[in-house]
Amino acid sequence: MLDAQKFCLIRKLINVVAATMLVVGGSTPANAQVVPGTGEKLTEIGDDFEDENWTFIPNLPKSSNNIDKQVRYPSGQVNNNRWFESLLRGQPDVVERVATPAGGLPNSKGAMKLRSVQTGIPGAPSYKMQQDDFIMNGNNRFGGTIQAMWSPNAVARVYLPPFEQWEKRTGSSLGFRMETLTHVMKPAEGKLFRKVGKVRTLDQAWPGMFIQLNSKADGVNKEDSAVFVIRADEYGQDFVAGPVIKETGWWTLGMTLSPDGRVHYYAAKGTGPLRPSDHIATKMPYGEPNLQMNTVFFNVMSADNGRTWSTEWIIDDVEIFFARR
Fold it and tell me: Which terminus of the chain faces fewer neighbouring Cβ atoms within 10 Å, N or C?
């Protein structure tokens, strides 16, 4: 395990090298894929939810900047300073420590529950799917980002309740995602006159994996099942990958950012370590290399009709690693 001070020193020494390895139009060779859960664990970030005093302070009302441009301070945060509310979309309506459901990690007594009913503007239902975010306090705790050349990787255990307890709609319900730095095309801007066209610039991206219910309640599917939806391919399109989920309970999800800027996705039933055979997809989201990982976060989605609660999601042992080469 690596403490924050040593990590920061190593990061500063190789930042210049990392910047030159991922240049426009180029990529480093991807060595053997790094399975999530591999390398040195960063103890300053992540969470096992074992502290009985773990408490979320919501500081309501939450933000809804993505809809009505309203950022409502102070933002919600956990008392251990490891999680905080998204100022873009706001936090889930329920964030609390709960007893670990049966079949979880050995000796685990605590986990985190996320659930929402107002995923849009507080008190003003939109009657369409909206989402809340809950963000791991990444670079504020360990002093910087993790360069792609270190193969940063993340693991989370997620409890899928029985299908009859899910929100009755076909669509994504939970997201497990990275925040990265990459190049994007943005409209050109001028000081006096608006420029025409777009320019390539550095900006954040949010690749990740969603759990989507295919609900029999919609009259199309004969039985309930779920699938993993990956965001995104080289053209920015979401796609389905991996096994069809017909058995609920505990699943382990993982993502790795490799030195060539691609994101690798893994999923397996149970809470055991991920294996190479659990790999479900590899993509260069939007066709641009991801240069670094800033943090990870969860999305909770619902119909945002003011009365229907989202599926109840329980998460345990969120861990971040990196593999020095």
Answer: N
